[in-house]
Design goal:
The chain has 294 residues and is an alpha+beta fold. Helices cover 48% and strands 22% of the residues. It is found in: Mitochondrion.
């Protein structure tokens, strides 16, 4: 009868379910007991910027620009960067990177004490005018290229006019929003070498980075091999300090915009974007230029 058939079918389903659960429990227990490599997700995310033509262009340009700087300018920039990467500490006794930068500047016998003091004040943000503002500008180009600019200016209207002129020259436009949402902010720490002169081992640096909040590491194979660690924006200082304490030379650290979906563009258009980025980076009030190009 239908009632009997229903009872038999229901009994079969119940028994079958118990059998499945009984069979799955040991397997689940084994999986939970198996040791897990908590660093595997970071190891698997290691990327190589050296494989990207665009990244090579930008890093090689940065190296050439650094070479062009005068001896005085170079050491002043290093001192300012040391103060910033040291959390704003202006005391060489507490900021080892600053102490090293000052020592290097004095060794040249070209950089004066006045230059050093001014660089320290600028690095700590003590010499900025009262109407100084930090702003973000957004630019849209052809082929889906997006740019985010970090700007520090005390002449807002003047800077706005200059930026419009640059955009007109390079046939792009200033956006009124919607671009920055295509990026995410990440802390970054760029390591260039070891203090003892040893070879930079990305795997060894990664071990240190993982313990102090590194989420991703990018190996940059340009003229100088470097490693760039990405982390939460609030963790870059502690990560920088940890890497420095373990004998790594921190070339730069801070917060930057990373594209949520990096894009590739035609080779010929890279030159167009590159020329725009060059002019933007040369502007004294533009601190950083971020693009969504892979």
């Amino acid at each position: 009868s239908p009632a009997v058939q229903f009872t038999v079918l229901n009994t079969f389903r119940t028994a079958h379910s118990h059998a499945l659960v009984s069979a799955s429990v040991p397997a689940l227990t084994r999986r939970l007991q198996e040791p897990r490599d908590v660093t595997s997700h970071v190891r698997e995310s290691r990327r190589y910027a050296g494989h990207s033509h665009w990244q090579n262009i930008r890093h090689i340009k940065a190296a050439k620009d650094a070479h062009k700087m005068s001896e005085t300018s170079k050491h002043i920039r290093l001192i300012e960067a040391a103060v910033k990467t040291g959390g704003g500490s202006t005391d060489p006794k507490l900021n080892r990177a600053l102490a090293n930068a000052i020592e290097g500047a004095k060794r040249t016998q070209v950089v004066t004490n006045a230059n050093i003091e001014q660089a320290i004040r600028r690095g700590a943000g003590l010499d900025k005018p009262k109407n100084f503002k930090k702003l973000t500008y957004e630019i849209i180009m052809e082929h889906g290229v997006l740019l985010v600019l970090d700007v520090e200016t005390s002449h807002l209207s003047k800077f706005g006019a200059e930026l419009k002129a640059i955009c007109k020259k390079h046939t792009c436009r200033i956006a009124r929003g919607g671009v920055k949402e295509q990026f995410q902010q990440k802390g970054f720490v760029r390591v260039s070498s070891r203090e003892d002169g040893g070879t930079l081992d990305p795997d060894a640096a990664l071990e240190v980075g993982i313990e102090h909040g590194a989420e991703d590491v990018i190996e940059i194979d340009g003229e100088t091999k470097m490693c760039e660690f990405l982390c939460d924006p609030n963790d870059y200082y502690s990560l920088s300090k940890a890497l420095s304490s373990n004998g790594y030379v921190v070339a730069e650290c801070g917060v930057k915009f990373i594209p949520c979906v990096p894009i590739t563009v035609p080779e010929e258009h890279l030159d167009v974007v590159g020329r725009l980025c060059d002019e933007l980076e040369e502007h004294s009030e533009i601190v950083a230029v971020h693009t969504n190009i892979a």
